[in-house]
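Technical note accompanying the year-one report. For the benefit of new consortium partners, we illustrate the data format agreed upon in the data management plan: each record pairs a sequence with a structure-token string. No post-processing was applied to the example shown here.
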Amino acid sequence: MSTRSNTMQKLFESHSLGDTIKIGEMIASNLDAPASVYLNGSMGAGKTTLIRAILAGLGYTAPVTSPTYNLIHEYPLPSMTVYHMDLYRLEDPQELEYLAIEDLWREDSLFLIEWPERGAGWLPKATATVQISPHENQQSESRMIAFERL
């Protein structure tokens, strides 16, 4: 882990669902509201699974589902409100205007955003990024997860 000023970078290896859950909990311990986390990775990389783990690490115990068709789900916690966005189906970033995201951005807001490039220009600036990619020469369920706090 390298730390300079507020920036932090950490690279994790996940070889199982259990690993991914632990990684999500570690990422959660490094997040404070207000924040906007951009999650990048190919289809099926495990972005939603990691978000479930992050929410669990923040203390959320109810089911977490992908907002692919709704675009956004809200998860209220005692210390913050988490907004999970999946922008895969977005055809034009301007469609985000109808979600009134600027009204959701408060001191206690944490945005976890899948496919952030599809909302370019309409999203809060990233305060952290997560990149999920297949681990070379490993089993198909193995992943490399890079977390960077900006």
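Partners are asked to follow this layout when depositing records. Strands lie at 2-4, 7-14, 35-40, 72-76, 81-86, 109-114, 128-134, 143-149.
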